[in-house]
Amino acid sequence: MFFRIVKGGMVRQRKKLLLIALTVMLGASLATAMLNVMLDVGDKINRELKTYGANLNVIPRGASFLGDLYGLEGGAGVSDKYLREDELGRLKTIFWAYNIVDFAPYLEAPVKAADKDLAFTVVGTWFAKTLHLPTGESVSTGMRGLKSWWTLEGEWPDDDAGDQAVLGYVLARRLGLKQGDKLRYSGPDGKPAAARVVGVFNSGSSEDDQAFMPLATVQGMTGLGGLVQRVEVSALTTPENELARRAARSPGSLSAKEWETWYCTAYISAIAYQIEEVLTDARAKPILQVAASEGAILGKVELLMALLTVLSMVCSALALSNLVTASVMERSTEIGLLKAIGATDLDVLLLILAETLLTSAVGAAAGYFLGLWFSRIIGAAVFGAAISVSSTAIPLVGALVVFVTALGCLPAIKLLLSLRPTQVLHGR
Amino acid sequence: MNILELRGVSMTYGAVKALQNIDLAVKQGEWLAIMGPSGSGKTTMMNIVGCMDKASDGSVVLDGEELSRLSPKGLTAIRRDKIGLIFQQFHLVPYLTALENVVLAQYYHSMPDEAEALAALGNVGLGERARHLPSQLSGGEQQRVCIARALINCPQLILADEPTGNLDEANEKLVLKILHRLHESGSTIIVVTHSPEVGEHAERVIILEHGKIARTTTGAKLHKSA
Description:
The structure holds two protein chains of two kinds. Chain A is α+β, with helices and mostly antiparallel strands. Helices cover 53% and strands 18% of the residues of chain A. Chain A is built from 14 helices and 14 strands. The two termini of chain A are 30 Å apart. Chain B is α/β, with parallel strands linked by helices. Chain B has one domain: Rossmann fold. Helix content of chain B is 36%, strand content 28%. In chain B, a hairpin with a 2-residue loop joins strand 1 and strand 2. At the A-B interface, helix 1, helix 11 and helix 14 of A face helix 1, helix 2 and helix 3 of B.
């Protein structure tokens, strides 16, 4: 009988209930879209920000000490400590391996141009090096991905070709070279050598006055086979919080539980710590302004999404409140009659709540799928990529809809409880 | 034995005194008519006796229960278990069939029993119209559904507010016939009406004026005076 009354009431008030369903649908669609974007936006924004470079600098422990002491940043002459090239693949074996997007090692050598009496720096690196990991996987990493915002005329050198180079546009201008020309130079040992200029880049920084060659070439001219001075790492990270800051100062100060939480969260300090665990005598230093910006932007975007979700649900609750109240007022005679023939307040309350919740459930289901479509549009328009559907959003949207429906029903419930049979049956 | 007793019952709405110091006793199986002009307090008295309102002052005892001491929930229980209400406007749920409207009263009372509800509709001559919606029934038929609903839980008191007020002569006769049958079977009936034609069927008639019982008479005397 209960469901017969609910069904009858719903059919009779279908227009009003359709409006309620539409209201819930709009609120749920916005909430779904915002929650999906919010739950996925960290990754998306991180990836966006990763296109602007590394956020970790790995240097030998001794060099780091000298750097800290004298404000020097690695480079030949600062330290005779080096990192081992053959260990770099281990970066993709740490707990947060999949968050390491790109990395590139660097080894610098001072050289002189053969034709002109002009000294400049050649930097050996990986451009798109394929690494075969102990896990059996292969990854490609290097400057091509790490410096994706550099503008390059020509192409990146082949890691296996020893006689290819890319020049910064300032250096190319000083040497009077362009793509396709030969760069003739004498290495640190004074031996003459040559490389074909395969590209000229503009980085907008001091690298514009440098030449970049395959790492093996520079290792050969410096006699530092298998060694590198520093490694730049680009990692997807979680914004820092108090725990992360405390851990960065001193991981030993954390309790076992805190340490586990910190270690298993992609804080930049946790990733740095894990890098230091796998590389011999290495120190991984977060490039803090990059990490902080990422955290701040991410935090703001997430806050914006959360606020939009709350606002959309508040608007839904207000609209729902008006519609349900109007519906109860319209049915006041029927409600009065039910009370007159013996229905308790709870009986009538359950009827109205069942009708509204059923209608809201239909609206929420439609809103969820509409929200997925919205999130796809937002993903394509804002991030140029699909927003992944988060299963976490389903219970969240469900809980929000139930909460909003209950909240929206409150004025109607108050009215319903105050209705007395005499008021509606006899106009008293 | 009295099924209903009102002692010093008054009801005020703000400054308006709808009922003033009413004393009344209704015996089990009695048919009482409450008559009077508009605004005399008939409906107010029905609301109080029907547990839909509480008197401002005085005592109302229905089947041994002091109504003024009961909570709204307690009054609902009395209304559900002991009173059958018949309204002038019928007040049927528009989207439920005649049968479902009767079952509705069973549902809130105890257990829905369609066969019993169908029999109740048969008793008021609507067995064939049980699956019809109120909008498909005439006014007289709707009132008979309302009566079947009021009787389905075997109430100790039947309260009818202008039961023939919206009916033509033929249907009025039909409804009064049903009330007579109920009375003969031992039901206690209180009818609120301003119609002498309805009042004259009662054993006892009280005439209300300005919230007070102006006089008491019998249905037979009322018929003679008409």
